Amino acid sequence: MAWSTLLSRQPIFGRALSSSPRLAPYIFAFVFLVRLIALTRLASSPFLLPGGGDMHFYDDWAKQILQGRFTDHFAFYGLPLYAYFLALLYKLFGYNPFVPGFLQICLDAGTATLLYKMAVRIFRTGDDPESVDYRAHAIGTLAALGWAFFVPAQAYSVILMPTALGVFVFWFLIWQIIKTEHAPTPLRCLAFGALVGLTATGIATILFLVPLLLATLLLKPQFDATRRSPWATRSAAVALLFLGLVAGTSPCWIHNYFVARDPVFLSAHSGINFWLGNNPDATGYPRFPGLHAGQTAMLRDSINLAQAAAGKSLKRSEVSDYWSAKAQAYIAGNFREWLNLLCRKVGNLWNAFEYDDLSVISNLLQQKVLFPGPHFGIVAAFAIPGLLFSLRAFPASRWIAVAILLHLAAILPVFVTERYRLAAVPGLLLFASFGLQMLWQSSSSSNYRALALYLALLLLSAILVTRPRKEPSLWAMEAYNSGRQALESNNLPLAELQLKRAYSYVPDNPETNFALGNLRLAQGDRADAKSFYHTTLRVDAKHKGALNNLGLIALEENQPALAARYLQQAIEEDPSDAKTYYLLAKAEVAMGNTRSARLAIEKALEHEPDRAEYRQLQEEIERRSNE
């Protein structure tokens, strides 16, 4: 049976929709309700307030903006849109992470609605745009429901991250491309360019949609082709598209060029990201050779190491150039290895392994914040055969396929995480839903040839996406992050369970040993804590956290000379940590070195002048020096 004949038949579940074919508002309401339940559950869990990682990075940045520190007069070292967005919401509604979460779930429900509308447009049969094709409605409904319960989408829509915004804007622009047979007008191109540019100040990968917008202008007919030269209209549209991009990104480049006086287009952290994805130890997933995990610590370390190598203070663009040069040197000197790494990244993109660098998915599932649902592996496995079948039968689906490939290409220069590849999932859900509809049609019409072909492709795609990732460090990551977050929320039994599991995978990992040391310290076992901290230093002799905590323990055990030695080493690694200077001042006071103590506490007050305990210690030091 020909595919055209097969596609013309109306499935049983398509007829079930005949009483209400206009489902978009109901889909929005349903997905919004699912997300709202998850957000409400999050609000009653320990994870609403960000305790660390990228969420804390944005939250802390927003608080600094609220305090009037709009700029540090350096080029942005992190994309600023989301931090300023949070600061605006905190200013209007008070400090409450529920409010940005509420807006994000609205956007995520909008993404599901766009999926439904795109399916109705792409998979309809017949030439009459006003006719109702219940098959297309069924495919769109299934794709929207898949997004509603897709577990990573649930997680990233409720936490303090710009992911939901990036995904919605990405697919809104794709919807604008496919909903009409004509190229966008010049004024629409200006608006699209401005939207892409503004979004890029928070999620830079959206810039990879620009080639697709250009292809739309070149390949689709113009609305006003009869009035003027088509090429004149296309040229004007291209010019306005780029003008919109320049205007949309202007908050970044104006700040960087004219306030910071540093030639950075968006953010200077692109260099360190490029190095993390392209170095001798890279695996295709985030790996931090010589750097501490966590956005704030990693960015600080990247600046300190670059400046230490240069032997002077650097502009943020120079820091970025330093790390980019290291990555380029690795690629040039190890080109064959780098090609293997690139292939590994492609494999990671399509693999079922879930590298959740924030470790929110497993934690929120454990806390029963999220509904059970599909993960990337099963969506990708069903999407691949659906994609292959749809490209010929439905030409409009090619725009979706290209959009997916462009987004995945945006990730390849750096590394693969679950949130980075999330923007591709709505398109994959469209193809997976189409493939399932084909499976239903083939089975119900006894088209065994088509059924066998679909199942063969499904088997091959399942083999592709389920290839195991055997590195112990990858499997330890989730347990480590879960244990660290449990420790931060004072859930010591859960922290014990998760950190021990991480330790069983990577017993020589410095961060795992450091976290176990912190756990033992929280449990009151100083001897065991010191043992884990010393193990951390054997692996990473410059681990600032271990040095600092050993100094603190030495102070509490009345060994000020030993404490001072550890704390001075910690200051060498991070000269900007006020708390370390404060502890060093206490050690110097205990040894009777009032002059050294005064210098240390002055340094602490330089960085944090409003801390009352620092002022009290300074007054005590002054009294002792006057005795």
Question: What can you tell me about this protein's structure?
Answer:
The protein is mainly alpha-helical and 627 residues long. Among the domains are: 269-349, no CATH class; 474-626, Alpha Horseshoe (Serine Threonine Protein Phosphatase 5, Tetratricopeptide repeat), CATH 1.25.40.10. It is built from 32 helices and no strands. The radius of gyration is 27 Å and the shape is globular.
Number of strands: 0
Strand content: under 5%
Question: What gross morphology would you assign?
Answer: globular
Span between termini: 101 Å
CATH topology of the domain at 474-626: Serine Threonine Protein Phosphatase 5, Tetratricopeptide repeat
CATH top level assignment of the domain at 474-626? Mainly Alpha
CATH architecture of the domain at 474-626: Alpha Horseshoe
* Main structural class: mainly alpha
* Helical residues, percent: over 70%
CATH superfamily of the domain at 474-626: Tetratricopeptide repeat domain
SSE order and pairing:
Layout: H1 3-8, H2 12-15, H3 24-43, H4 53-66, H5 81-93, H6 98-122, H7 134-149, H8 151-158, H9 163-178, H10 186-200, H11 210-219, H12 230-248, H13 250-259, H14 270-277, H15 295-310, H16 316-333, H17 335-349, H18 360-366, H19 376-393, H20 397-411, H21 418-421, H22 425-444, H23 448-465, H24 472-488, H25 492-505, H26 510-522, H27 526-539, H28 544-556, H29 560-573, H30 578-590, H31 594-607, H32 612-626
Descriptors for this entry?
32 helices; 627 residues; mainly alpha; Serine Threonine Protein Phosphatase 5, Tetratricopeptide repeat; disordered N terminus; 70% helix
